[in-house]
Amino acid sequence: MRDSGLPGQNRRRTRGRASGGRRGTGHLALVPDLDETGYDGGPAVAEPGTEGLAGLGAAVEHPGDEGAGEGFGREEAARAICLRLLTSGPHTRAQLATALRKRHMPDKVVESVLSRFTEVGLIDDAAFARAWVESRHHSRGLARRALSAELRQRGIPDGEVRSAVSQLGPQDELATARRLVAKRAPATRGKPMPARARSLMGMLARKGYPAGLAARVVREALEQEQESGPGREDLAWISEEGSGDDWL
After folding, report:
1. 8 lies in some domain
2. Which residues contact 190 (CB under 8 A, 6 or more apart)?
3. Domain total of the chain
4. Which of 28, 94, 111, 208 could bridge to 145 as Cys pair (CB 3.0-4.6 Å)?
5. C-alpha to C-alpha distance for 146 and 206, rounded to whole angstroms
6. pLDDT in tens, the chain (248 residues)
């Protein structure tokens, strides 16, 4: 009968426990919690297709950041958040500032990071505004008033808003309003004329067109339609004075 205290047995048992420990826990790993920006306190990891922005991390760092301690950690996190947002599409400075403050970034860090991003061209509110006006006017038919409101909601300064919407002249708005009415008018046929006019005027009003221009375009379109149909109705009542909230 073997003594249970023999060194050989103890060694075998010890090896067995160590081996069992490896088998039971070798596959486990601690995974840091990520916030919605994907930042875990370490360097940001680029998503597929974002290589172009990933390489800009160094470009937005400030000289001397290496010794900034906790402050540098905050700025690094703020840069990672901004780069992540910019990979999803253009953002204004105000939008990025709002996103950073929602993540409890100090105002000093927010201003420092956004100023640096503006300096290297990653934030350009003027370019954002010009692209917004061109895209939304051609795709949605929005007029200058509606476009101005949308840009201000996104934090674009008034001067940049005026400059961007100045790309659209009165003739541009007139042509687009006519196109919108020509597209919508056939769907209103069969309804009483006041209802048709109200529908078309309301559509233009919601897109930001002035009441006078909307009345002119709707009246012209309905008069032209009557020329090719039976009967003719006087549409002089479709005017700026007869527009307003009732058309919305």
Report:
1. no
2. none
3. 3
4. 208
5. 8
6. 444 444 444 444 444 444 444 443 333 233 333 333 333 333 333 333 334 454 454 455 544 444 444 556 899 999 999 999 999 999 999 999 999 999 999 999 999 999 999 999 999 999 999 999 999 999 999 999 999 999 999 999 999 999 999 999 999 999 999 999 999 999 999 899 999 999 999 999 999 999 999 999 999 999 888 876 566 777 777 876 544 444 44
Which of 153, 64, 158 has the alpha carbon at shortest distance from 112?
64
Judge whether 61 lies within some domain. Answer: no
Q: Which two tokens stand for residue 223?
A: 């008069």
What residue type is assigned to position 162 of the chain?
Answer: R
> Do the beta carbons of residue 46 and residue 54 sit within 8 Å?
yes
The kind and range of the H/E element at 70 are helix 70-88
The verdict on residue 39 lying in a domain is no
Let me know how long the chain is.
248
38 in a structural domain: no
Do residues 158 and 175 share a domain?
A: no
What angle, rounded to 10 degrees, do the helices at 211-227 and 170-184 form?
50
Residue type, 217: V
Q: Are 118 and 130 in the same domain? A: no
For CA atoms 171, 173, 177, 179, the dihedral sign is positive
Going by C-alpha positions, the residue among 182, 220, 233, 226 that lies closest to residue 203 is: 182
Distances (CA, A) of 178 to 171, 183, 213, 219, 233: 11, 9, 10, 11, 20
